[in-house]
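hi support,

uploading two proteins for the ticket. first:
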Amino acid sequence: MIAERALESLNYSLIKGRACRIMWSQRDPALRKTGNGNIFIKNLDPTIDNKALHDTFSAFGNILSCKIAQDEEGKSKGYGFVHYETEEAADNAIKHVNGMLLNDRKV
């Protein structure tokens, strides 16, 4: 499918110096607002970007949204969010990544 190929090959590529994020359209706002499947990751190394976060957490389920919090200058604040399609995927990610070392920092 063309959309899947675009998502895989262009996600996080640079456009005018900024990384673009490509996600599947989620028309049901109730899914976003419930918070189900949404996890918070803290103590991230500043070198971890959106793509690295996505690559790390995509092994546990279908990601709807993934983002590193940034300051006004575009530098990482050391935390981020991953929103999974299912609560089970989020629970699985927490089970496997909580306390793990990413770039020598325990998350």
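and the second one:
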Amino acid sequence: MTTRKTSARETAYVEMRRRILTLELRGAQKIDEGALVASIGLSRTPVREALHRLTAEGLVEADARGGYRVASISLRQCRELIEAQHVLVRAVTQLLVERIGDEGLERLSEAVRAVERAAADRDVAAVTRTNAELHILETELTRNSYLLAMAERVYTNLQRLAFLSFGGDQGGAARLGDIDEHYDKVHDDHWEYIDALKQRDRERAEEVAVRHVKLFQARLTRYLSEADGAGLDFSSLAADAQVG
């Protein structure tokens, strides 16, 4: 495959993925391939190849009437994502405490700084992207390819939920009125986690990792129940995931 073909396919994939994760393309929305081809400025082949790749990631699905549509996220899937995240952070922490070295710690520190820069710029899309990249990097540093595949799928799908709960669909306007406080807690958790890894303190690192999941879980639950969920019961999503 030529470099030009590879570049076209990657360009289509990156742009379509961005539109889905920032809700320019909404869940369950029918994908108009012709409109995508015209707006991205590429031929139909790389766009279709990108659709196949996004389908494998769970962001796009085949439409029963033909073509593709953006995958929606149900309440059950929200719950499953949070449960998977609880399981994932425990496994990742156990391996990181044993395996991470100075170079890995520095890479994590730079990834945390990237999240902080995005938050300071009030760029919700960048916050959700850099935060996902940070947690995927944590998993990459375990040197376990199976956990990495799981992390890429989990954190990719969580990005859409984070974008909503952080007010990305409102042009970055504060959602639920406490975004700065939330970001402060996020940053504190990130740095404390790195410190616990440096100290090889598995118990403290796991405690921070689980607390971090619960922080997002609580915000997501508030968003679902207060912002868009009038009359629906999301109480079970707020319950702690039952994992050992």
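thanks. also noticed: Confidence is low (pLDDT under 50) at residues 228-244.
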